[in-house]
């Protein structure tokens, strides 16, 4: 079974620029998560999708971050405009359902904002 | 005060040692407790999953949960250099939609 795929793996941008990350979850997984992991910290949930609907986006900075999951499969996370404090690894995870199912993580996209 | 506290380390041990990793938490609503292992430049992978209090063993790994003390532990027996990674504790509760709350992670280095 193929794992969660993410691209790009690394991205360097200047502040105030925009950036987008892409995630392809494990086939058949209904739930998709985006996490932000700042260096030295644990992952923090940004947004959770169940199929193509948003379940939880309470910690998503909506003035600059947006995410979509069209057709309930792939997802993109966008930051516009980026700030220095957005430098982090952005992890995508997926699970079969919503409750206690195991979350499988992708390798992440490391973003550096200069 | 953070919801989940975890000593960042690094913890350095010789090969073959028994390793003890710990987390404390403040929210008594947490019911599900997990340990993830994260290698450098990789995503976290689930190691152990425990519901409520008690022990769970899987090979060289043992997870313990003490809900009365709000304290969880992961023990690694006969540690190997390949165990060198960051270990993240995570926990969740049904009333919060099972959203995972992670500790900061402990860096473990096993020296051969």
Strand content of chain A: over 45%
Q: Give the largest chain-chain interface (CB within 8 Å).
A: A-B, 23 and 24 residues
Please outline the major beta sheet of chain B.
6 strands, mixed
What does the average pLDDT of chain B come to?
A: 94
Helix content of chain A: under 10%
Low-confidence stretches of chain A: none
Class by helix and strand content of chain B?
A: mainly beta
Helix content of chain B: under 10%
Q: Structural class of chain A, please?
A: mainly beta
What's the assembly state of these chains?
A: heterodimer
Mean residue pLDDT of chain A: 94
The helix tally of chain B amounts to 0
Q: What's the helix count of chain A? A: 0
Distance between the termini of chain B: 37 Å
- Number-wise, the strands of chain B total 11
Q: What is the string of SSEs of chain B from the N terminus onward?
A: EEEEEEEEEEE
From the alpha-carbon coordinates, what is the Rg of chain A to the nearest angstrom?
Answer: 13 Å
Poorly predicted runs of chain B are none
Gross morphology of chain B is: globular
């Amino acid at each position: 079974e193929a794992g969660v795929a993410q691209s790009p793996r690394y991205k360097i941008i200047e502040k105030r620029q925009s950036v987008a990350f892409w995630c392809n979850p494990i086939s058949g997984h209904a739930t998709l998560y985006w996490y932000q992991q700042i260096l030295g910290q644990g992952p923090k949930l940004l947004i959770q999708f169940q199929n193509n609907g948003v379940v939880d986006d309470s910690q998503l900075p909506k003035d600059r971050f947006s995410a979509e999951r069209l057709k309930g499969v792939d997802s993109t996370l966008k930051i516009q405009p980026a700030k220095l404090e957005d430098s982090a690894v952005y992890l995508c995870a997926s699970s079969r359902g919503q409750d206690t199912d195991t979350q499988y993580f992708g390798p992440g996209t490391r973003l550096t904002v200069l | 005060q953070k919801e989940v506290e975890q000593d960042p380390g690094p913890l350095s041990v010789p090969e073959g040692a028994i390793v003890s990793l710990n987390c404390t938490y403040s929210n008594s609503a947490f019911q599900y407790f997990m340990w993830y292992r994260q290698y450098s430049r990789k995503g976290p992978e689930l190691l152990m999953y425990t519901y409520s209090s008690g022990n769970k063993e899987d090979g060289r790994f043992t997870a313990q949960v003490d809900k009365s003390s709000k304290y969880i532990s992961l023990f690694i027996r006969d540690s190997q250099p390949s165990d060198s990674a960051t270990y993240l504790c995570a926990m969740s509760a049904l009333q919060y939609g099972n959203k995972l709350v992670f500790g900061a992670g402990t860096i473990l280095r096993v020296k051969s």
